[in-house]
């Protein structure tokens, strides 16, 4: 049974999330302390962490940063701070997803299940596969090769390093433009559109390999 750590200082909300997760057959542990959360994450094995941004004894951003020093456990930020700066800062520190207050507890369960699927993809011999040929700058989908430009290949390779992780436009620009040239963040959008168009012509046109997270960035979607 997957174990979920809930870090939330509102007792009613914390218990509500725990009740719904337990009903979905998860084991939960709860704390309202940043310090306790960091200790638990270091000492015990959890499959995911629901982490509130505003805690009585610390900031959820700092907790996320501390956990990322020793663990890649999926972290879902629970926050009422929805402006883009906070979102991008959380992603820089390694958050896997956001749940914005107010929310439905059913949404929490669905988002936890989604990050667990991305963190532990199940092999499916019948599903589409995507591999990269870095000598030819090609994506290989099933039996079909898709020729890419150098920038498109670098973009896809970056997204492929951590399937399911959300990358902001700034992060993607830093990865694919090593010379730090000044380009518009909309340049990334243009490359993404072209890349999607090329990948959609492959063996499995029904699967959209690149997902968008509104106001945040992009991620590679596992089939």
UniProtKB/TrEMBL annotation:
Write the record's keywords in alphabetical order, separated by commas: DNA-binding, Phosphoprotein
From what organism does this protein derive?
Answer: Alcanivorax jadensis T9
Q: Which residues form the Response regulatory domain?
A: 3-116
User: Per the record's keyword annotation, is Phosphoprotein included, yes or no?
Assistant: yes
- The keyword Methyltransferase is assigned to this record: no
**What CDD domains does its record include?**
trans_reg_C
Q: Which Pfam families match?
A: Response_reg, Trans_reg_C
Which superkingdom? Bacteria
Which protein is depicted? Two-component response regulatory protein
SUPFAM superfamilies this protein is in?
C-terminal effector domain of the bipartite response regulators, CheY-like
Post-translational modification 4-aspartylphosphate, affected residues: 52
Q: Where is the OmpR/PhoB-type domain?
A: 120-222
At which residues is the DNA-binding region annotated? 120-222
């Amino acid at each position: 049974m997957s174990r979920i750590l809930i870090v939330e200082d509102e007792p009613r909300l914390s218990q509500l999330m725990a009740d719904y997760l337990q009903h979905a057959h998860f084991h939960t542990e709860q704390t309202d302390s940043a310090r306790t959360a960091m200790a638990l994450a270091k000492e015990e094995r959890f499959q995911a962490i629901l982490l509130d941004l505003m805690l009585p004894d610390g900031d959820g951003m700092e907790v996320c940063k501390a956990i990322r020093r020793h663990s890649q456990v999926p972290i879902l930020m629970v926050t009422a701070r929805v402006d883009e700066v906070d979102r991008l800062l959380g992603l820089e520190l390694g958050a896997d997803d956001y749940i914005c207050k107010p929310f439905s507890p059913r949404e929490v369960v669905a988002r936890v299940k989604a990050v667990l699927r991305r963190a532990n993809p199940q092999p499916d011999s019948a599903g589409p596969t995507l591999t990269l040929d870095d000598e030819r700058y090609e994506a290989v989908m099933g039996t079909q090769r898709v020729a890419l430009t150098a920038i498109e290949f670098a973009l896809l390779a970056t997204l492929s390093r951590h399937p399911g992780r959300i990358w902001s436009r700034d992060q993607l620009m830093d990865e694919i433009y090593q010379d730090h040239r000044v380009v518009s963040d909309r340049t990334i959008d243009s490359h993404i559109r072209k890349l999607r168009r090329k990948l959609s012509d492959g063996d499995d046109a029904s699967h959209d390999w690149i997902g968008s997270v509104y106001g945040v960035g992009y991620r590679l979607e596992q089939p």
